[in-house]
Every structure is written in structure tokens, then in C-alpha cells.
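The pair is quoted verbatim below.
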Amino acid sequence: MASEYVFISDLHMGGDEELSALDFEDELLSFLETLEKRGGDVELIINGDTFGLWEYAEVTGPAKLEQVIEDHPRVFEQFRATGEVIDITLIPGNHDYDLACYPSAVDRLAEYNLTLEPEIAITREVAVDSGGNHSDGHPQIWIEHGQQHDANNRMPDWGNPDALPVGYFVVQRIVAAAGRYSDRARGDWLRDIQSVAPMEEIPRWLLSNYFYREMSPFLRAVVVPLLLFFNITLLYLAGTALEAAGIIPSSVFTDNPVVHALGVGDIVLELIITINVVIIVVLLLLAIPFWLFRRDLKHTLERFGVVLSGVRVGQGDEPFLRAARNVFETHPDVAVFVYGHTHRASLTRWGDRVVVNTGTWLKKLQHVETRFSRLPGVYYPSFRLNYYRIFAEGDRIVVEYEEIETDKSPDLTRFQRLVARHPSAEEPIPDRTVIDPTGTLEIPEDERSGSESS
């Protein structure tokens, strides 16, 4: 039992070709060096998806772990150095599920002072001064990655390398392929596909990057004015309809002297409006069959149990909060529930119980609308390199949250910077949360009924 536990998750180190790049390598090395220098009775726990083993399509089995070690020698040497001073424990997630399938991984990682516990969930005790009414003498931390609560990423037979969920095949066919083809893109944006969450966002993300990065500049120079004038076209159509109905005079739109005074500009404006009218008519004609096709495809995918990501848009962390409620209710000694998987760091407090989401060190992509209507949204990149510390303070448990500063600037094109709105700030997480492990579990009524937590 350590006196302090440090948690991170979802590093996703590894992957074919461009996916092997580690944007946060310097920050991770510095973080590990800091833990090494501090020393003490500390255990670093990486609760899943330390490695991106699913993202390798060219190698199989234990060779995937060997490839990660080869791709990231500096990180593993620092693991070895830090692991000589403090304990470092790994548990498998879904992307490094191979760690639970091949016993050789335990010994291989031990060479770098990494302790692998190939379990779906583990627990740790917190050495508070008084055990209170806890039967085992100390309150516990429940630790898991969380993939078992995601319908398309849960493992049907834990430890069986051939029993793989739908998510594995999606990663193999889409994410790993993106790593191999990333160098063909204009810029290095394609490898960021592993940061698109949930995966339902991939089509919209691809469209956005095609428009802002891959589209011919000459074609974009034609398309952008058409899109920007789309609202003007809608206004013009509405105005001419009102004129035809006699509600407003014809001099407002059809025979406006100011517009006619533009000369050539008037002709260009009318041409753009005409083109947009044609586009609107075509879209209206296609709208109904496209809607029927989309509806039928959705029902078909649901019938086969395939929805790309079991955590759907808008569902948020509800499946994981529901799992935490069950653990708290069935294991009264558990005071803190720790999970990852969703890449959204958070802390939820229910009375004297805490649910912690460890987030990710991957680049985060936030969809933001543009300043100009009809232009595709921009996926604004950022990093939230974070970790949690959990330790005893007298007869209390303290959960501290810290973020690591990074000077990485958003890798956006000049056009994206021009049109993108500023993204909204991420939900703040308390720097310090103190709970009484002998206190009560108080779940708000809206969360008991299954609605999404704020």
C-alpha cells in the first residue's frame, strides 16, 4: 500500500507509421523525471490504453509490444529509471488489450520496471488514520479503464486474443490506415483521427479537413463566395416571395435601384444567387431520399449491433457513472472510482464519494462553428495533459488535480484561424477535493434516474 497514488491514462503510444509520433513526449519525460526526483512511497498507475496496440496492422501478437518499445526508446528508458524509485503499474485498456492476452508481456514490461496487472479492474487501499466502519480497515480506490461499459469495445472473453469487439476492426480498418496514408495529406492532420471522439464525428471531421486543407485553392476560391452568399440567397428568395404576394413593394429586392447601380457587380450578384438557387433546388429534391436512406442505414446498423462507438454522441459519461454507482452501492469500502476511456477528464462528487475520469494525453479536437455561416466547422486542437494524486490526510482522502503546461500552438491553417470562432473553455476540475471515507454516498436524483452528469 503506497502513501500516494498518481493516475494518468490513454497515452496511446504506438501505431503504424505516422501514428507512432508522440506529440507529448517531452512533457511525459519531464513528468516521469519529476516523479523520479520526488521519490517517496508513490505508485504511478496508468489505467489503460498506455499503448496503441490496435493501431498496428503490420505486426501481430507480442510483436506489437516490441514495436512500441522500438518506436519509443526514450520513454521506456525513462520508465526504467523512474521505476527504480517508485512503483509503476499498468492495466490494459481496449487499445492495448493484447497485454491481457499474452503472459510474456508481464516479464517484458518488468524489464523496464513496469508492473503489468492484466485485470479488467484493480483496487488500492488508502492509508487513512482511521478505518472507520470499513471492514478491511482502509477505504479503497476502484481502478479500471472502462471499456467494458462501451457496447462496441467491451471484451467478450477477457484474455482471449481472438475474441475482439467491433471497435478493434474499426481501428484496424480506419485508424491504422490513416497512419499509413498520413504522409500523403497536405499537412499531418490525418493521423489526428485517433483524437476524434466519438467516432461518429469522423465523417464531419474528414469533410472539414478536406475543405480547409485538401481542396484545391482555386476551387475553394469559387466555393467560398457561393457558401457565404447562401444566406443572402435565402433572404432574396423570401423577399421575392413577399413581393409576389404584394406584402412588400418590388423596389426592395427585384427592382432595387441601389443593386442595379452596381453595374458588373449586379450581374455577379445575380449569377451567384442563380447558382445558389439551383443548388437549393437540387438539395430539396435529394433531401427526402437521403433522409430515407440515412434512416434505413441507421436501423440496419442498430440491428447488427454496429454503431461505430458504443458511447454515442450526447450520451456522455452516463454508462461509466452508472457503473460507478453500482460499485459504490455494492462495495461500501470504495471511496474513489477511477476510469478513463472517454478522453474527457472530469471529477464528479456524490457526497463523500468521488468519480474520477483521467482523460487523455492525446491531442483533443473540439468542433467549433465558423464566424461565417455555411462554412464547415473547424476542429480546434488543444492538449490537456493532466494527472490526479490521491492520498490520505489524517482521516480524510484528498484528490488533487493538476495540469501540465505545454507550449504547443494549435496547428491550424491561416484560413481556419480566420474563420473559426474561439472554442469554449473546458469544464473546470477542482484542484483539491477532500472527502470523509466514512461519509455517505449522495447521488443527485437526476443522476439516479439515468440523465447525464454535468
Notes: The longest strand covers residues 386-393. The two ends are 33 Å apart (CA to CA).
